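Query structure, 189 tokens:
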């Protein structure tokens, strides 16, 4: 029974199709010098990642597309897969934000803190209707994805303006004497 090709072999085949095989081979030999013979996979994985390996599923998808359509469609697939990986990295970096701690109204806070999760086709979004605090918040997110500049300028901008105090809230006289302030500071220490 014939085994299905590994992601590594599919990647190497892709490098050959794209004319990058010799470069991959040269870099792999260099990387292998730095590891023990048993650890050749580490060297291979490092070079594969540097040269555009996007993951097992992506390599299989690219291979399937190549078998069906030849070279047509493969660059778009790689770009889409890379965008997906970039989005996942961004989500990891930003994490989840508790929108109840925001000074913004909850619907607007949900949209603002979910825009980075709503990339591409709605079926691939990393946020779902049940995550929204209200149906209106979900609808606003759908609108904001297509109108991000308007959302930032109009909705968020207006909220930030209305949330600002109209007068300077900086240093002002509290009516305390210098002696009273010194006494409060001594009590704190």
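Result returned for the query:
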């Amino acid at each position: 029974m014939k085994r299905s090709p590994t992601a590594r072999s599919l990647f190497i085949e892709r490098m050959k199709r794209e004319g990058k095989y010799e470069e991959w081979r040269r870099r792999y030999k260099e990387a292998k010098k730095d590891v023990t013979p048993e650890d050749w996979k580490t060297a291979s994985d490092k070079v594969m990642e540097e040269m555009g390996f996007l993951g097992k599923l992506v390599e299989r998808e690219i291979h399937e597309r190549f078998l069906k359509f030849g070279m047509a469609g493969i660059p778009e697939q790689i770009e889409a897969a890379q965008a997906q990986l970039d989005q996942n990295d961004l989500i990891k970096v930003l994490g989840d934000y508790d929108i109840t701690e925001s000074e913004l109204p909850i619907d607007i806070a949900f949209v603002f803190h979910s825009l980075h999760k709503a990339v591409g086709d709605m079926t691939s979004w990393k946020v779902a209707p049940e995550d929204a605090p209200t149906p209106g918040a979900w609808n606003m997110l759908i609108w904001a994805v297509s109108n991000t500049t308007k959302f930032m300028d109009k909705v968020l901008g207006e909220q930030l303006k209305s949330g600002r105090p109209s007068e300077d809230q900086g240093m002002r006289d509290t009516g305390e004497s210098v002696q009273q302030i010194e006494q409060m500071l001594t009590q704190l220490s």
